[in-house]
Amino acid sequence: MHRLWHRMSLNRFAVLGRVGMDLNADPPGTPIEEARAFTTSIGGSAGNIAAALARQGAATTLVSCVSDDAVGRFCRAELNRYGVDTTHVRAVRGEARTSLALTETRQPDCQTVLYRNGAADFALSPDDIAGIDFAPFAALVITGTALARDPSRSATFAALSRARAAGALTVLDVDYRAYSWTSRQEAAAICLQAAQACDITIGNDDEFALMAGDYAAGPALARHLARNGALFTVYKRGAAGSTTHTPDYSFETPIFPVAALKPTGAGDGFMGGLLAGLGQGHSLDAAVRRGAATAAIIVSKVGCAPASPDRATLDTFLSQRQA
Q1: Cβ atoms 75, 47 nearer than 8 A
Q2: Range(s) of the domain holding residue 225
Q3: How far apart are CA 246 and CA 233, in angstroms?
Q4: What's the CA gap between 183 and 186, in Å, rounded?
């Protein structure tokens, strides 16, 4: 695990994948079909992870494509406002469009309507990756949706190869979204290929089941990856918490019970809080707790990126919940 601590001490991350615009039905509790007003924020797994990392003090770069229009410019401006470097966010002309999501802030029966027709982030190409120097980064974080289509898929594997060659760690957020893939079988094969190439894999029970072939085999796959090349894996089980596997040991981490306003955004926050914690020098178990706490804070507030805590807020939250 020495390599983990050595690289993470750089506390600088590249996150590859989609960023989009979220329209949140307002006020909280309003169904989309009854809404007369919406608040705006960035969305998309990679955008949310990048914002979470930046909010907790990590130097963060997003690698993506957005449409060359007002929505794409909104996403770039919001990323910059969070302190995320957008040097490697390319504007795509033509008919490609940045993703747009209409969301709700309510429990239960939370609805999200997502528009990804001609998604601009799938235009990311190996040429976009060729000019990136990964040597200064602690890690490259890839999100599974970026693997769903070419040229984005080829760009993502090229980024993994270049990052490993430069000594950076590689992290997979499985991020399985069925609507992005041509088949479940294709998604299973490609996501497993990426997991086997990464130092760290984080996914929920559905995502490990996808890669393993069924739910019963999911936990064993998470253990297998950690025993066969990965530095660690995290198998998330929703309200049941998570199990972290390393080559030498495993441990359980519970969730932090909160009054949740919505179910969305927890996974992105978990990734951001965990990696930021490692970048700050926390032990692995403490970093996983910070990921779980970040997720809890996010589901208790409106939006994902806007709800993501800064380091002081997270520290206060944890200090109030010490056993």
Answers
A1: yes
A2: 2-319
A3: 7
A4: 5
In the chain, how many domains are there?
A: 1
Residue listed under structure tokens 């914002």: 51
- pLDDT tens track for 261-298: 899 999 999 999 999 999 999 999 999 999 999 999 99
Q: How far is CA 175 from the centre of its chain?
A: 7
CATH number, domain containing residue 201 = 3.40.1190.20
pLDDT tens figures, 146-188: 999 999 999 999 999 999 999 999 999 999 999 999 999 999 9
d(CA 83, CA 206): 32
% of the chain at pLDDT higher than 90: 94
Q: Which residues of 44-79 are buried (b: 16+ CB within 10 A; e: fewer)?
A: bbbbbbbbbbbbbebbbbbbbbbbbeebbebbbebb
**Stretch 193-206: mean pLDDT:** 97
Alpha carbons within 13 A on the beta-carbon side of 143: 28
Give the type of residue at 316: T
The residue among 21, 17, 87 whose CA lies nearest residue 59 is 87
The rounded distance, in Å, linking the Cα atoms of 116 and 50 is 20
